Amino acid sequence: SADGFDYLSARYPDLAGKLELSQLGVALKKQAPWSPSAEGFRLVSCSALTPIKRISLLIEALSLCNLTISWTHIGSGPLFEQLQAQAAGLPQNITSRFLGQLTNEEVREHYSRQPYDLFINVSEHEGLPVSIMEVQCAGIPVMAVDTGGNRELVNPENGVLLPPNPEPVQIAEALRDFYRLSAKAQQEKRNNSHDTWDKLSNAEIQYPRFIRSLEGLFGIGQ
């Protein structure tokens, strides 16, 4: 991430000239057809179920929502049973399902078949999340906290950037505001989300660029 690059440059100024920013990327995958659902808001998250990912905070926020929300979480971890139990106490307008650990290919195939309205990331710390790159490739808007490199991928044009340490009510209000956007406005964010992937996280661009930089170090191809 540029955030990590800037941190290292400031922390080790004598080595700044030896640093180069080279971001990750993901390959193109088809997008699921999308239209607003009369059955409610379709929310998805994907992370390890560990304290740093703050899924408990997300569940607290969902408990404050008076919207009809179908929330899916992908990923497992030591807090799996605890968080499932917490989610079981959500009000009736919120349904939750935990898919557990999936392979990367299974995750990406899932996104290509499920027309989610929004992806959410409330992690305490991040680098430059591949999980966000993958959903942006699928044209899914992103709501994320402003930590690490998240702001390099998420902005008001393609989603929502929350404060680094949001209160549950702030997340709930942001979900409500996104839900109230018109279908046209949501589609614009979807288009912009996919465009962000294409500009910043397209593996067909990022990886050949990285290979060329390595070749340049050894004079290959010159």
First-to-last CA distance: 28 Å
- Spatial strand sequence of the major β-sheet: 3-2-1-4-5-6
The radius of gyration over CA amounts to 18 Å
Count of DSSP H/I helices: 9
The helix content is 40-55%
Measured by DSSP, the beta-strand proportion falls in: 5-15%
Order of helices and strands: HEHEHEHEHEHEHHH
**Overall mean confidence score, pLDDT:** 95
The major beta sheet can be summarized as: 6 strands, parallel
**How many strand elements?**
6
Q: Can you give a write-up of this model?
A:
- The chain has 222 residues and is of the alpha/beta class.
- 43% of the residues lie in helices and 14% in strands.
- It has a six-stranded parallel beta sheet, with helices on both faces.
- Strand 2, helix 3 and strand 3 form a beta-alpha-beta unit.
- The chain is globular and about 60 Å long.
- The two termini are 28 Å apart.
